[in-house]
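INFO  loader      accepted 1 record
INFO  loader      residues=188
INFO  predictor   begin
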Amino acid sequence: MQQAFIYIFAYFIGQLLFAHIIGVLFYRKNVFHLGSGNPGARNAGRSFGKWGFLLVLIGDMLKAFLVCLLADRAGIGIIGQSIALILVLLGHMYPVIYKFKGGKGVASYIGGLLYISPFSTFSFIGVFIILFLIYRSFTKSGLIAIMTTPIFLYLYERNLWVSIAITIIAIIIILRHTDKKVIVGDEQ
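INFO  predictor   done
INFO  writer      dumping tokens
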């Protein structure tokens, strides 16, 4: 019963889109109507500046971190924490209260991962920085780094099921970032 409550709570807390909340409270603007229209930290940064970016980043990370902490304190374990993180991300990406139009989930992913496996998070950040220096692309570097995280997680935590859960999260995030459909043979 307690586990089911935490999972339901995780999805609903995921629906707190801090880009929208910060935009309305501090800037009197709707992030859905600005820039890319995405309610995430990057668009908040473009629309509200560095402080808007930081507030949204911290808010989105914190909600996932706190849900994983709650799951841990409830004794659910690392696998349950990973499932709770999946549900936070699904709430963030597909929020019912915003007609399923949410963010892409990277900040929440990092926040939850930071609780579940801090060393995996630091490895993810290290890979991201190296790739960013090579590619000079925030998105490409981030997505490749996200794909490496299940490997780091397995190496640090030695738990195949948690690595599988994080792989599912990585796939969901990558799919969320590939909004455009590419026709085979039409790539340049």
